[in-house]
Each structure stands twice: as C-alpha cells, then as structure tokens.
Amino acid sequence: MTPKSQPSSRDQTETTAEADESVIVERIYNAVMEQRLAPRTKLSESGLCETFGVGRMRVRRALLLLSSQGIVDLRSNRGAYVACPDKAEANDVFAARMLIEPPVVKQLAQNPSAINLALLTEHIALENSARAQNERTKIIRLSGEFHTKLAQSTGNKFVTRMMRELVTRTSLIVGLFGSSSNTSCPDDEHSNILDAIHSQKPDQAEKLLISHLRHIQSGLDMDARQEPQSDLTSILG
Amino acid sequence: MTPKSQPSSRDQTETTAEADESVIVERIYNAVMEQRLAPRTKLSESGLCETFGVGRMRVRRALLLLSSQGIVDLRSNRGAYVACPDKAEANDVFAARMLIEPPVVKQLAQNPSAINLALLTEHIALENSARAQNERTKIIRLSGEFHTKLAQSTGNKFVTRMMRELVTRTSLIVGLFGSSSNTSCPDDEHSNILDAIHSQKPDQAEKLLISHLRHIQSGLDMDARQEPQSDLTSILG
DNA sequence: AAGATCACGATTGTTAACAATTTTTGTCAA
DNA sequence: TTGACAAAAATTGTTAACAATCGTGATCTT
After folding, report:
1. CA nearest B150: which of B92, B205, B76?
2. A150 at the B interface (CB within 8 A)?
3. Which of A21, A158, A168 should be substituted to probe chain B, the one whose Cβ sees the most B Cβ atoms within 10 Å?
4. Strand spans (E) along B23-149
5. Does any CB of chain A come closer than 8 Å to the CB of residue B165?
6. Among A20, A24, A100, which would you mutate to test the B interface (most chain B Cβ atoms within 10 Å of its Cβ)?
7. CA angle A41, A65, A156 (to 5 degrees)
8. Are the C-beta atoms of B152 and B141 separated by less than 8 Å?
C-alpha cells in the first residue's frame, strides 16, 4: 500500500502517457523529502512537461497542489520554486510538532495494540541498514517516514495528514539549516521511542519523543543557509 | 499591475467581481462553514463561472484547491460536490481535535500574554449577540471561528491551518448529523474556556475544552443524515 | 565606463476550440 | 408501466494557440 508497488516504467527519458497528476506530485514530493531538490530550485513548466512527458495542464495542476501543501512557492508570473522556509517558519514547525506529536505518541503508548509493530520494527531495520551503508537520501527519507508512520498508526486520517506535512517541512528545514554532520535523526532514538510505546510507557515515550525533537532542532544552525542548486531533469529520473 | 476587474457578464447580483481564485475559494469556504451549501451539493463549473463572472480556468483551480482542503470532493468526469463526511470521518475529526486542541489551549493558558484578549472577548460578544437574535448561520460561523482564533493566538501558522481545517470539517459534520436543537456550541462554554485561559488555569482550561468537545459530539446523531439541497447561484451572493 | 532605456526572447497566464465522458431524453419491446 | 437500448444534450477533460509579463542583453546618453 505504500508507494513501492509501482513497476518500473520510469527508466526512459520520454514517458509517454501514464502520468496522473498525483504521480507528478508524488515524484516531486519525494525528491524534496530526500533533499534531492534543493529549496529555491526553480521548477519550470516546460522542464517538468518534458521530464514527465505530460501536457502543461497536468503540470500546472500538480504545482498548484504542491503549493497548497507548502512544498513549492508559486510566484505570480515568475514560476514555481521549491519552498524555502525561513527562520520563523522553522521555529513554527518545531513548535507545532512539539505541541502535536507528544500527545500522539502518548496515546499510542496507552493503546499499543493499535500499532503495527512488525511494520514499524521493519522500518527501523531499514533505517539502520541505510545508516550502515551511509545512503544519505535513504536515511533522510526513512527518518521522516518513521514519524509519519507513527502518526498513521493512530488510524486517524487527519493526524496523519498533519504529521506528513510537518515532517515534509522539517525535511526542507534540515536540508537548509542542517549543520553538516547530523543531517537527520540520531542513531537509535526511533527505536527507543518505539520500545517505550510497545511496552506501554506513555510518559517515557512522550519524554523520549520530546528530547528527540529537541535533539533534531539543536542540530540546526539557524543562521547559515545552504545554497540552491539542482538541475531538474536528472533529479527526477 | 494589479488584477483588473473584467468587463464580463455580471448583470445579476453585483458582487465585488474582481475574482482572484482565492476569492472563489473563500466564498465557497464560507458558504460551507455557514452551512448554506449542503454536503453533496453539486458545484458545476458553468454555474460557478456565471456566479463569479470568471473563466473556467479560475473555477477549476479553485475547485482543485478546495478539494485539497477536503471541502469539496472531485469525482473524475463527474464534477465537484460539497464533501459529505461519513461516520468514520466524523469520528476521526473529533478524535483529532481531542488530541490536538487540548495542548493548544493548555499552552495558551500557560502563556496568556500571547492571546489577544480584547479580540476574543469581542468575538464572544458577537457570538452572544447572534445567539440572542437567533441568526443561525452567524452562530454557526462564529462558533467555529472561536476555535480557529484560539489556534491563531498561538501565532503558529501550522497550528492555525490544522485547526481551521478541522473546524471546517466539524461544521460539515454538525450540519449533517446535528440533531435539530443543538446545532452548534452550547451557550457560554466558549466564554468559560477563555476565562480559564486568561486566569492562567491550564488544567481547568483543558478540562473545559475537552468537555466542550464532548458536548458537541454528543449532540450528534450518527445514524441519521440530513439530505442534500441547495441551488447555487442564490446562495453565493 | 556607468547607468538608464528599449527591444527581444523566454516563461507564465488566459482563452477558446476540441475531444471524451457522463447524464438525460426519447423510443421501442416485453 | 417497466425495462433496455440508443441517440442527443450537457458537462468535464485536454490541447493548442494567443496574450501578458518578466528577465536579459544590446544600445544610447551623459
């Protein structure tokens, strides 16, 4: 059910006719999540049309959708750019997560039967594997997805959506303000959180999560921004 | 420079007809919030084009935006309909609010200097006035807006957006499942919550809010749905 | 040369015609 | 009357041409 079930039809340069606009959205979304598309990168319509083999209409719709999710910034008559959160927005994101995520985790720990332990354990295994092999983009994506999957465990559509949005934005922020070394979640904190949930320790789970978020935030340098980059067509292969 | 108003067919209800698509979104949004547009109402493109005096493109963009907010349901080749939450979704909405809103209120109560007391007090006065005069749509809208404004007091963009979305959905749900009498928030619970916040009683504020939400939810009859309706052009004047 | 101005090219925004699909309507047979 | 079927109308989806705007580079003035 996760976006892995797609057979490979994205090998060629000109994909002809299987591009629902949601595919475009997802592709760009993933590229941003994995920090392959840097903030401020321009997403020209013609460029996207070519890379996806799609008419302008689809591209424009996709861009509108992405802008409504805050992933791209739509400047009138000037085109679409990958969103570039500033300091204030970064703080807002973390504040929002601090507010929302603890209750989520706490509730999960109170009723851990709801969670799919196997799935989450598997996920952490993947994370560790990626970390062991130093696969940067994978690590980043999986780190974020852990939090999303946690939210998904509540079975609540809205909670999931909110968390997804916040996690995406966090990814952008970490990419922008992340000070070299620690570009994602530290080693085994995810594992510890999951353990606390599974062993029904709400307070501990909450505590661990909070310190986890603090940890991520403290790894940022709010004064230095990385610079743009990215050349589009190659990135979205 | 700025978007010019277009000389077009708006011979009927003249309505500030310089229609940026955000205006269309807002108009429909408000109509849904005030329960003037019933769930399942069809929003035909041509109809909206006429009522807003706008080309099809703007309308389609607006509908896409609204669908991304879950306010309208976009069925392929069949057009746009006002969203019609089912039982499960209704439960999700309240569960999400139960999860998110208490921490928000609690935090506000811990730092009440952040809130704009005058604004919120004024708002409650408006609510009471509307209640006194039995202005149904006003009551409904203001009841929802109180919660939105509360979230807004955090100064957090994301918290505000989330709450706004949940409140909108709540409005739809109350319209659908609301059992006649109590179609909105009960009398002075808002006032009590605000008081608790202002006098720095986080726990009490949280408690009041929770019981407030329970109160709203218990006023619903999850088994009987109101039926469609609505004729469009007249409603959006 | 530095700076301003203007024209050109490239990109985005809009409109209108066209194609595809669904819904309605009309007809006929059981 | 009811049901099935088919043509017609209405609605949505798509494409392509057209218009407006922005960025860039050449030209001109001081």
Report:
1. B205
2. no
3. A158
4. 42-43, 72-75, 79-82
5. yes
6. A100
7. 115
8. no
Contact A174, A221 (CB under 8 A): no
B80 and A CB contact within 8 Å? no
Q: Is CATH 1.10.10.10 correct for A21-82?
A: yes
Please state, in angstroms and rounded to a whole number, the distance separating the CA atoms of residues A200 and A114.
Answer: 12
Asked if B44 CB < 7 A from strand D, the reply is yes
| Neighbouring residues of A57: CB distance < 8 A, sequence distance ≥ 6 | none
Q: What is the pLDDT along chain B (237 residues), one digit of tens a residue?
A: 333 333 333 333 334 445 688 999 999 999 999 888 999 999 999 999 999 999 999 999 999 999 999 999 999 999 999 999 999 999 999 999 999 999 999 999 999 888 999 999 999 999 999 999 988 888 888 999 999 999 999 999 999 999 999 999 999 999 888 875 555 556 789 999 999 999 999 999 999 999 999 999 998 988 876 665 555 655 665
Residues in contact with strand C, defined as Cβ under 7 Å from any of its atoms: A 42, 44-46, 56, 60, 74, 76-80; B 3, 6, 55-58, 77-78
- Token reading at A168: 């995406």
Global confidence as pTM: 0.88
- Residue that the structure tokens 């940022």 belong to: A220
**B94 DSSP 8-state letter:** H
Handedness of CA B71, B72, B74, B75 (dihedral sign): positive
- Taking contacts as CB-CB distances below 8 angstroms, the residues of chain B near A158 are 92-93, 96, 162, 165-166, 169
Q: Locate the domains of chain B by residue range.
A: 21-82, 87-218
Q: Which CATH class is domain B87-218?
A: mainly alpha
